[in-house]
Protein backbone atom coordinates (compact mmCIF):
# COMPACT_ATOMS: atom_id res chain seq x y z
CA UNK A 1 0.00 0.00 0.00
CA UNK A 2 2.67 2.44 1.03
CA UNK A 3 4.57 1.45 -2.04
CA UNK A 4 1.84 2.66 -4.39
CA UNK A 5 1.95 6.09 -2.79
CA UNK A 6 5.70 6.19 -3.11
CA UNK A 7 5.46 5.18 -6.75
CA UNK A 8 3.09 7.95 -7.70
CA UNK A 9 5.50 10.47 -6.22
CA UNK A 10 8.34 8.98 -8.20
CA UNK A 11 7.06 9.46 -11.71
CA UNK A 12 9.94 9.39 -14.12
CA UNK A 13 11.17 12.83 -15.11
CA UNK A 14 10.65 13.80 -18.71
CA UNK A 15 13.61 12.75 -20.78
CA UNK A 16 16.07 15.30 -22.09
CA UNK A 17 16.35 14.79 -25.83
CA UNK A 18 19.56 16.20 -27.17
CA UNK A 19 21.01 16.21 -30.67
CA UNK A 20 24.20 14.16 -30.94
CA UNK A 21 26.13 17.14 -32.34
CA UNK A 22 25.11 19.26 -29.34
CA UNK A 23 25.93 16.50 -26.88
CA UNK A 24 29.36 16.09 -28.44
CA UNK A 25 30.01 19.82 -28.52
CA UNK A 26 29.22 20.46 -24.85
CA UNK A 27 31.46 17.57 -23.84
CA UNK A 28 34.22 18.87 -26.14
CA UNK A 29 33.82 22.33 -24.58
CA UNK A 30 34.54 20.83 -21.17
CA UNK A 31 37.71 19.19 -22.50
CA UNK A 32 38.86 22.44 -24.10
CA UNK A 33 38.52 24.53 -20.96
CA UNK A 34 39.96 21.85 -18.65
CA UNK A 35 41.15 22.27 -15.89
CA UNK A 36 38.65 25.13 -15.75
CA UNK A 37 34.90 24.79 -15.97
CA UNK A 38 33.08 25.55 -19.16
CA UNK A 39 29.50 26.74 -19.31
CA UNK A 40 26.81 27.57 -21.79
CA UNK A 41 23.13 27.54 -22.60
CA UNK A 42 21.06 24.82 -24.26
CA UNK A 43 18.48 25.86 -26.83
CA UNK A 44 15.51 23.87 -28.01
CA UNK A 45 11.80 23.33 -27.96
CA UNK A 46 9.51 22.12 -25.24
CA UNK A 47 7.59 18.98 -26.26
CA UNK A 48 5.20 16.68 -24.37
CA UNK A 49 8.15 14.28 -24.03
CA UNK A 50 10.37 16.93 -22.52
CA UNK A 51 12.93 19.34 -23.91
CA UNK A 52 14.33 18.67 -27.36
CA UNK A 53 17.69 20.40 -27.48
CA UNK A 54 18.94 21.32 -30.94
CA UNK A 55 21.61 23.89 -30.22
CA UNK A 56 24.06 25.04 -27.57
CA UNK A 57 25.66 28.43 -27.06
CA UNK A 58 29.05 28.64 -25.40
CA UNK A 59 29.39 31.32 -22.78
CA UNK A 60 32.46 32.95 -21.37
CA UNK A 61 33.04 31.91 -17.79
CA UNK A 62 32.91 35.15 -15.80
CA UNK A 63 34.20 33.52 -12.65
CA UNK A 64 37.88 34.13 -13.25
CA UNK A 65 38.49 34.05 -9.49
CA UNK A 66 37.85 30.32 -9.17
CA UNK A 67 36.93 29.02 -12.58
CA UNK A 68 37.72 25.45 -11.55
CA UNK A 69 34.70 25.12 -9.30
CA UNK A 70 32.33 27.94 -10.17
CA UNK A 71 30.56 29.03 -13.28
CA UNK A 72 28.37 31.90 -14.24
CA UNK A 73 26.90 33.38 -17.39
CA UNK A 74 26.85 37.18 -17.36
CA UNK A 75 23.27 38.49 -17.27
CA UNK A 76 23.81 40.61 -20.38
CA UNK A 77 25.10 37.62 -22.29
CA UNK A 78 22.10 35.59 -21.18
CA UNK A 79 19.70 38.23 -22.45
CA UNK A 80 21.47 38.23 -25.80
CA UNK A 81 21.39 34.41 -26.01
CA UNK A 82 17.68 34.39 -25.24
CA UNK A 83 16.90 37.08 -27.82
CA UNK A 84 18.88 35.32 -30.55
CA UNK A 85 17.20 32.01 -29.69
CA UNK A 86 13.72 33.52 -29.88
CA UNK A 87 14.53 34.77 -33.36
CA UNK A 88 15.09 31.13 -34.38
CA UNK A 89 11.91 30.03 -32.64
CA UNK A 90 13.87 28.41 -29.83
CA UNK A 91 13.76 28.71 -26.07
CA UNK A 92 16.44 28.35 -23.45
CA UNK A 93 16.01 24.69 -22.54
CA UNK A 94 18.69 24.71 -19.91
CA UNK A 95 22.31 25.22 -19.09
CA UNK A 96 25.42 23.11 -19.07
CA UNK A 97 28.76 23.19 -17.34
CA UNK A 98 31.65 20.89 -16.60
CA UNK A 99 33.12 19.50 -13.42
CA UNK A 100 36.86 19.10 -13.88
CA UNK A 101 37.94 16.01 -11.91
CA UNK A 102 34.64 15.95 -10.01
CA UNK A 103 31.61 13.71 -10.49
CA UNK A 104 28.71 14.84 -12.69
CA UNK A 105 26.68 15.65 -9.59
CA UNK A 106 25.27 19.07 -8.75
CA UNK A 107 26.89 21.03 -5.94
CA UNK A 108 25.23 23.28 -3.39
CA UNK A 109 26.47 26.24 -5.42
CA UNK A 110 24.95 24.80 -8.60
CA UNK A 111 21.64 24.42 -6.78
CA UNK A 112 21.74 27.89 -5.21
CA UNK A 113 22.46 29.48 -8.59
CA UNK A 114 19.81 27.53 -10.52
CA UNK A 115 16.74 29.70 -10.96
CA UNK A 116 15.18 28.49 -14.21
CA UNK A 117 12.45 26.16 -13.05
CA UNK A 118 11.53 23.68 -15.76
CA UNK A 119 14.97 23.91 -17.32
CA UNK A 120 17.60 21.18 -17.61
CA UNK A 121 20.97 21.57 -15.93
CA UNK A 122 23.52 19.35 -17.63
CA UNK A 123 26.82 18.53 -15.96
CA UNK A 124 29.74 16.72 -17.55
CA UNK A 125 32.54 15.26 -15.51
CA UNK A 126 35.90 15.88 -17.17
CA UNK A 127 38.39 13.40 -15.75
CA UNK A 128 42.02 14.26 -16.42
CA UNK A 129 41.06 16.21 -19.49
CA UNK A 130 38.63 13.68 -20.97
CA UNK A 131 34.85 14.05 -20.87
CA UNK A 132 33.41 11.28 -18.72
CA UNK A 133 29.86 10.99 -17.37
CA UNK A 134 27.20 13.49 -18.42
CA UNK A 135 24.06 13.89 -16.30
CA UNK A 136 21.04 16.09 -16.62
CA UNK A 137 19.07 17.49 -13.69
CA UNK A 138 15.67 19.00 -14.26
CA UNK A 139 14.89 21.91 -11.95
CA UNK A 140 11.40 21.12 -10.70
CA UNK A 141 9.08 22.89 -8.30
CA UNK A 142 7.26 26.18 -8.49
CA UNK A 143 9.33 28.68 -6.52
CA UNK A 144 12.82 29.24 -5.13
CA UNK A 145 11.55 27.74 -1.86
CA UNK A 146 10.41 24.36 -3.16
CA UNK A 147 12.69 23.94 -6.17
CA UNK A 148 14.52 20.63 -6.56
CA UNK A 149 16.99 18.99 -8.91
CA UNK A 150 15.73 15.70 -10.33
CA UNK A 151 18.01 13.40 -12.28
CA UNK A 152 16.50 12.80 -15.71
CA UNK A 153 17.32 10.42 -18.55
CA UNK A 154 19.21 11.75 -21.55
CA UNK A 155 18.24 10.50 -24.98
CA UNK A 156 20.61 11.34 -27.80
CA UNK A 157 18.98 12.14 -31.13
CA UNK A 158 21.10 11.26 -34.16
CA UNK A 159 21.86 14.41 -36.10
ZN1 LIG B 1 28.80 22.52 -10.86
Account of the protein in words:
- The protein has 159 residues and is of the alpha/beta class.
- Helix content is 25%, strand content 38%.
- The protein contains four helices and eight strands.
- A hairpin with a 2-residue loop joins β5 and β6 (130-140).
- The longest helix is centred in the first third of the chain and has 14 residues, at 20-33.
- It is globular and about 35 Å long.
- The model is unreliable at 1-8 (pLDDT under 50).
- The structure holds zinc ion (ZN).
- Zinc ion (ZN) binds next to β4.
- Residues 97, 99, 107, 110, 123 line the site of zinc ion.
Order of helices and strands: HEHEEHEHEEEE
Structural class, from secondary structure content? alpha/beta
Biggest pleated sheet: 8 strands, mixed
User: What sort of overall outline do the alpha carbons produce when their principal axes are compared?
Assistant: globular
**What distance separates the N and C termini?**
45 Å
Number of strands: 8
Q: Which strand order spans the largest sheet, edge to edge or round the barrel?
A: 7-6-5-4-2-3-1-8
Our count of helices gives 4
Low-confidence stretches: 1-8
Ligands bound to this protein structure? zinc ion
Amino acid sequence: MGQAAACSKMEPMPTLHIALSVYDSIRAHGEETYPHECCGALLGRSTPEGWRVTDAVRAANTRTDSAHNRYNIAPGELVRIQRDAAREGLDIAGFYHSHPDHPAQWSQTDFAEAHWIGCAYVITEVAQGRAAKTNSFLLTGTTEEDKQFELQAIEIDPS
